[in-house]
Specification:
By secondary structure, the protein is an alpha+beta fold. Helices cover 43% and strands 15% of the residues.
């Protein structure tokens, strides 16, 4: 999923996850884009067994406290979540580039992506900085952080 320091080792443990937009572009300032994240979370909960313990959508990133149970591996569910989220948002931005807010945001995302790999677009950073919540203290601190985030 990312470099060796950011692997999800226990696929069924509760994890604090952060998904950031490439270059921290403020995409989620538009309600329609944040709504896509919510719908993707609902879809993964309903069809992929994602257990959502807490979540927060910021202007340019998303925090989740999530887990799964067998047979659903957390890495697989998060991969699908990113796909279900990225594709419709990229489509929305490409169809309404002026609606995004920042002038040229769509073009910027497209240019940035071409420096990374040869696909049409990249929307979310490839890593997600998972933190396994191995104790109640870690889980409580991450929950507290989410509740303080605005």
């Amino acid at each position: 999923m990312s470099n060796r320091g950011y692997l999800i080792r226990d696929q069924f443990a509760i994890h604090f996850i952060t998904f950031a937009i490439i270059q921290w572009v403020d995409i989620f300032t538009k309600k329609e884009h944040a709504d896509i994240v919510v719908e993707s979370l609902k879809f993964c909960h309903k069809t992929k067994g994602l257990k959502i313990h807490a979540w927060c959508i910021m202007s340019n990133h998303v925090h989740l406290i999530v887990s799964t149970s067998e047979p659903n591996r957390l890495s697989d569910v998060l991969r699908d979540f990113k796909k279900f989220t990225s594709s419709p948002i990229i489509k929305s931005i490409s169809e309404n580039p002026k609606k995004v807010g920042k002038a040229g945001c769509y073009g910027y995302l497209k240019r940035w992506d071409k420096r990374i790999r040869e696909i049409d677009h990249q929307f979310l950073q490839q890593d997600n900085h998972p933190v396994e919540c191995m104790s109640n203290e870690i889980l409580d601190s991450k929950m507290y952080y989410l509740h303080q985030t605005r």
